[in-house]
Amino acid sequence: MNYPSKLIATAVAEFKKLPGIGEKTALRLILHLLKQDEDKVTNFSEAVRQMRSEVKTCEKCYNYSDHKVCDLCTNVNRDASVVCVVENIRDVIAIENTGTFRGLYHVLGGIISPVNGIGPDELNIQGLLDRIRADEVKEIIMAISPTMEGDTTIYYISKVLQEFEVKLTTIARGVSFGGELEYTDELTLARSLASRMPYENYIVK
To answer: 86 phi and psi, to 5 degrees?
Structure first.
């Protein structure tokens, strides 16, 4: 595609690097920005710059945060004895949007996938074990997308948790096999959490 300006071409090339953004969409966004007042575009770029430089990873649950420890982990009204283990931060947002879960979270940062070169050491599993040792955690809810890799991850974690006196549950399979939590509607996700069951009941004998 030919552009009337090298600066526009450069901007389009950068926007195309964003997930789900093709060249036509990138161009449409760039042309929209060019129509805006300069101060609006400056505010937009400054918000992105500030976000990138100042947003931190929570030292406790690995969620994104404006502080060293996120607002969820420091909220005294949350039930610290129940920890919901999720694959990524998008899953935290999806569950929080249901408005039904009052425990805390632990973000693994992925799932075990040998094909993609992701093993247990690449995930935040050690951080989960440290939390169980340090805090009075009574229940671990495995809210992992029901895929082959997700089930492998749950199985691995169930083995490393055997040394702890902690209840291990998994969300009910209202989420279809092969589905991802972030794309599950809020009602289904809320019901799956409410209907969670002991992990040993889920394992095929």
So the answer is: -125, 165
Q: Three-state DSSP class for 196?
A: coil
- β-pairing, 139-143 vs 79-86, is parallel
Residue 169 CA: distances (Å) to CA of 2, 57, 63, 109, 205? 55, 26, 21, 20, 17
Rounded to whole angstroms, the Cα distance separating 101 from 127 reads 21
Phi, psi of 70, deg, nearest 5: -70, 165
Average pLDDT over residues 85-98: 92
- Is the pLDDT reported for residue 174 higher than 60? no
Work out the burial of residue 69: count CB atoms within 10 Å of its CB; fewer than 13 is exposed, 13-18 middle, 19 or more buried.
Answer: middle
Query: Domain 6-54 classified CATH 2.30.40.10?
Result: no
Q: Tell me, what amino acid is at 132?
A: I
Token output for 78 = 């949350």
Domain ranges of the chain: 6-54, 64-202
